[in-house]
Amino acid sequence: MTKQEAFDLIFLRFARDVAQLSTCKRAKVGAVLVTGDQIVSYGYNGAPRGEPHCIDPCQCVHAEANALIKSISLNMTLYSTTVPCLRCAQLIVNSNIQRVLAVHAYRCGDGLDLLKRADIPVDLVGNVGMLGDALEIER
């Protein structure tokens, strides 16, 4: 067995073990992000942080997405032309994004509701920029 094959086996076993942390009743999935022989991050599938588990419709954030999200270690602000949809809000809740600034509301308020429940401030600035200049954004 080569050194790479040995690492592959170790990291796949770790992903299998991480999957046991999943709160999903349908499937337990684990994922590990690695660079070289160093673990960067890991994740498992489950509800967005602070949300109930296994409700209908499913709100599960996938293991791979959680591993990617956890690899971002800075406290960040998200600037968007539109308030995030529910799927994007789920990812934001599990990330280190501390604040969302948006120009327009989204057609459905589920994402905004989730961000509010997670205590992530969402500032809707409308068509006027913070410096008073008009934001011309195609919709």
Average pLDDT value?
85
From the N-terminal CA to the C-terminal CA, the straight-line distance is: 55 Å
Report the total helices: 4
Number of strands: 5
Order of strands side by side in the largest beta sheet?
3-4-5
Largest beta sheet, briefly? 3 strands, parallel
Low confidence ranges: none
Q: Helix and strand succession? A: HEEHEHEHE
Shape: elongated
Search tags:
single chain; 139 residues; alpha/beta; three-stranded parallel beta sheet; two-stranded antiparallel ribbon; elongated
The gist of it:
The chain has helices at residues 3-19, 63-70, 86-93, 110-117, and strands at residues 30-35, 38-44, 76-82, 97-104, 122-124. It is α/β, with parallel strands linked by helices.
What does this structure look like?
It contains 4 helices and 5 strands. The protein has 139 residues and is of the alpha/beta class. Helix content is 29%, strand content 22%.
